[in-house]
Amino acid sequence: MNLKQDISKMPVVLVAGGAGFLGSWLVESLLTQQVKVIVVDNLKTGKKDYIKKFFNKENFIFKDQDLTKDFRVEEKVDYVFHLAGVDDYTNLDTLLVNSMGTKYLLDKSVEDKAKFLFVSSLDSTRETGRVDPRKFAEEIVEEYIQKQGLDARLVRVADVYGPRMPLAANNAMANLIKNAVNGETLHVAGSGLTRLRPTHVSDVVYGIMKAMFAGNTKGGVFVLVNEQEVNALAVAGVVQKLLPQRPNIVFDGDSPENLFSNSVDLTATKEILGWQPKIELEAGVKETIEYFEKNKEVEVIEPERLEVKAQETVKQLEKIISAPKFNLFKNLNFRNLNLFKNYKLKIKNSCLWLLLIPLLYILPLLTMVLPAYQTYNGLKKIPDLIKNNKYQETAKIIKTAADLQKKFVRIIFLYPWMPR
Fold first, then answer.
1. What DSSP string describes 301-354?
2. Residue 341 has pLDDT above 50, yes or no
3. What residues contact residue 412 under an 8 Å CB cut-off, 6+ apart?
4. H or E stretch including 252?
5. pLDDT over threshold 70, residue 325
6. Is 207 left (phi over 0), alpha (psi -120 to 50) or beta?
7. Which residues pair with 223 in a beta bridge?
8. 86-100: b (≥16 Cβ within 10 Å) or e
9. CA-CA distance, 318 to 187, in Å (whole number)?
10. How many CB atoms within 10 Å of residue 80?
11. Cβ distance 235 to 176 under 8 Å?
């Protein structure tokens, strides 16, 4: 086929967010087909380096545009992939690209009678107590399907990893890969029991392509995640095994962790797409670490996110510095404070309380003797458990010990006033 002569006959594919982690791999896969690809990306989280090798291709166009401000694509398109809001950053840009940006892309799809696909997150289905921008975008897509008859579908992903993954995303997978590449100890949140479904980027891209181009996918919701859940400690064990220095695994007890399993319905994914992940976790993690070791120039922390975080910290410090100082003698009115007048303490009652207070401490401490002994024996087994790669059992023992320690502190220092 003469490419120059047949570009005008090629289907046109618009990829919003095509310079990002997931988007750039999708673009690479699309360009192996006989299609013309238009990438729209403002490069705030995407990187031009990921797609610059395509700039000399005649069937590739890059538009440095902001979906929420200056979006314009004059060419008629046949397919629209919306991956611009998939990154794990919740800020004003994410909110706008999932609302205004989604609407602009949907309007373009309606105008050109193009097929539309929105990549969302499995987390959008979980109640978090806040508005999830991707869930809002999903609702807009559903409206266009119902009211405009748009040929659209949703894809939900979670814990996607692989080469080019954003190590600044501050999630469990990114943090462990970043620790490995930087030669640091491996940090896991809390007790290491965070539930994960690690899915390699190549498997996810294949599923996205099938969801768009396979038949009978209009209006469908396809979940592209690993059916098998693992905890963060198990992933840390895989990373540790792959590194020659065998770094220690450290538990960040104060870090938040997700102990709840995301229930997933993979029926449509299996029956309609015939999709399931192929890349094993160990092989995928090994490939990812090797990629970042060879590409150390790849930025780990985006300057813009660092600047925003610094500005937020400065604002918090300014609030603390400008806060009015508390003056004990000024703020409390001692004239109305008369202990003898208001309470009339009796010696007999005081003595009775003095006898009861020790019992409030002794009895709870006695109930802790057996659990403490059992936990002590469990902690002695940890070196052998780690040696045998029994990370989940290790995490449970550590969590039990931490809970016991908290209970002990509560009894000694604050019992019975501290809420359990």
1. S-HHHHHHHHHHHHHHHHHHHHSPPP-HHHHS-GGG--HHHHH---HHHHHHHH
2. no
3. 361
4. strand 249-252
5. no
6. alpha
7. 156
8. bbebeeebbbbbbbb
9. 31
10. 26
11. yes
What's the Cα-to-Cα distance from 406 to each of 146, 260, 360, 409, 411, rounded to whole Å?
53, 22, 17, 5, 9
Residues in the chain: 420
DSSP string, 14-61: EEETTTSHHHHHHHHHHTTSS-EEEEE--SSSS-GGGTGGGTT-TTEE
Q: How many of the other CB atoms lie within 10 Å of CB of 175?
A: 22
Structure tokens at 101: 């940006």
Predicted TM-score (pTM) of the model is 0.71
| Pairwise CA distance, residues 225 & 369, whole Å | 44
**φ and ψ at residue 235, rounded to 5 degrees:** -65, -40
CB contact at 8 A, 300 and 184: no
Task: Assess contact for 309 and 269: CB atoms under 8 A.
Answer: no
Collect all residues with Cβ–Cβ distance below 8 Å to 235 and sequence separation of at least 6. 172, 173, 176, 196, 198, 281, 285
Please identify which residue in the block is written with the tokens 């540790």: 240
Phi, psi torsion values for 191, nearest 5 degrees: -100, 10
3-state class of 222 per DSSP? strand
pLDDT at 86 over 60: yes
Mean local confidence (pLDDT), 137-166:
96
Residue 203 tokens read as: 């498997």
Distance, in Å, from the CA atom of 31 to the CA atom of 40, rounded to the nearest integer, reads 15
Closest among 53, 33, 46 to 84, alpha carbons compared: 46
Peptide bond into 416 cis (omega under 30): yes
Phi, psi of 130 (to 5 degrees): -140, 165
Mean pLDDT across 231-260 = 85
Q: Return the axis-axis angle of helices 369-380 and 347-367, rounded to nearest 10°.
A: 30
The tokens of 245 are what? Answer: 């220095």
What whole-number distance in Å separates Cα of residue 189 and Cα of residue 103? 37
Distance between CA atoms of residues 337 and 217, nearest Å? 74
